[in-house]
Amino acid sequence: MKDDNFVLTPALLLNAYAAGVFPMSEGRDDPEIFWVDPRRRGVLPLNGLHISRSLAKRMRRGGYVVTLNTDFAGVVDACADRPETWINAEIRRLYLMLHDLGHAHSLEVWQDGALIGGVYGVTLGAAFFGESMFSRATDGSKLALVHLSDHLRRCGFVLFDTQFITDHLASLGAIEISRATYRSHLELALQHPADIAQYPLDPDTQSVLQRSTQTS
Predict the structure, then answer these.
(1) pTM higher than 0.85, yes or no?
(2) How far apart are CA 165 and CA 83, in angstroms?
(3) Which run of H or of E encompasses 53?
(4) Which is it for strands 22-25 and 65-68: parallel, antiparallel or unpaired?
C-alpha cells in the first residue's frame, strides 16, 4: 500500500501501529516508504517462550551483560548493517525521534564491551512491536529476545508483535495468527497501560532463565 501524499511523522507512525500496520522501505537507498498489513502476523507469546538446551546452557555460562536503551542508535545501525535491509535513512531518523519521545526502545547484549546482539521496537499500551534484531556472535539475538520477553512480561506487557515469522523466531516459540486475531489481541493490549521502564532489567540470568522456563 503505497501513498506519496503524506509526510511521515512520529505521531502518524504511532497511529499506524495502533491501527495494525507498520512502515517499510524496499532498501536502504530507496527513499520511498510503504505500509505493511500482513495477512498472517507473527507474535512471540510472552508466556510461551521456548528455550533450547543449548541456549539455556549459554545463559547459564553467562559472560554477557544486557542493557535497556543504552545504545538505541547503535542497535538500529547494527540491524541495518547487512547486504539487504528495509531500514533507510528516513526510517532511521523517524525511529530515533520515536526513541527520544519514549516510544521506541532497544535492548542490547554486550560481551567484553562489544555489542554482540540486540533488538529494537515500539511500545504502545501493553504492546511491543518488534522492528528488527541483529547478532554479531552466536545466540546474540536469541539472548536479546529472551531477556526482552522476560522484561516485558514483568512490566505488564501482553503482546509481543514480531510482524513476520522466521525459523529463528519459531525456534523460540513464535507463532503465526490471522490478521483478525491479531487485531483482537492488539485492541486488548492498547486498552492496558504498561511501562517498559517500570522495573530495571533483571541482571540475574539464572532468574530470567527460571522464569522463562516456568512459563513456557
Answers:
(1) yes
(2) 20
(3) helix 53-61
(4) unpaired
